Amino acid sequence: MDKLDALFDFNATALRVRAQRQEILAANIANADTPNYKARDIDFAASLKKALEANVASAANNAAVSSNGNMSLATTHGKHIPGGTGGVNEADLLYRPLIQGSVDGNSVDGEVERTAFVDNAIHYEANITMLNAQIKDMTAALSPTS
User: Where is the Flagellar basal body rod protein N-terminal domain (predicted)?
Assistant: First the structure.
């Protein structure tokens, strides 16, 4: 079953990081008129790599599955910080470079944000399509031939 998990792990992790990026970009768009708001984004490739490494580390460290199905690292001391599933955290967020200054200190450029939002949505859909193709291939391989 570990190989089956590994087969789907990449696309599942990519979908999770893409969804988190979509939330960040949506927050930028929503705060386009907020004074002193600084546009944020992530480096998708670096965040995906970090998330995949966290998934491998949690599996290697005998991760315990909680009652709701979420993975968490087993801790051996009360002061240990429980690990997550390798998502994007505050340290991964980057400030978007200022393209054009504004009087109110807001760094959101609507066109840049909408373009990044649509690009991320297209990549998200592509990940779903690849995941569906993998599931169809797996189903075809497991079904008896007529």
Answer: 11-38
